[in-house]
Amino acid sequence: MRMHDLNATLLHQHGLNHERLIWRQKGRNFRLTDVIEDFVPVLLS
User: Fold this and answer.
1) Is the pTM here over 0.70, yes or no?
2) Residue 45: helix, strand or coil by DSSP?
3) Which domain holds residue 22?
4) Residue 6: how many other CB atoms lie within 10 Å
5) Beta-carbon-side half-sphere exposure of residue 31 (alpha carbons within 13 Å)
6) How far is CA 43 from CA 3, 6, 17, 24, 38, in A?
7) What Rg value do the Cα atoms of the chain yield, rounded?
8) Residue 42: which residues within 8 A CB-CB, separation 6 or more?
9) How far is the C-alpha of 22 from the C-alpha of 28, rounded, in Å?
10) Rounded to whole angstroms, how far apart are CA atoms 1 and 11?
11) Band (6; pLDDT cuts 50, 70, 90)
């Protein structure tokens, strides 16, 4: 599991959509989970 996956899973647990959590810097949109992310439902069980 990568750190991006863990961040996406924790944000999901808090009710936040990791794909919509963005900020703009130098004309580019950045996300906390960057472009490599995957929600891991196994951690929730």
Assistant:
1) no
2) coil
3) 3-44
4) 14
5) 16
6) 13, 9, 17, 30, 12
7) 11
8) none
9) 10
10) 15
11) confident
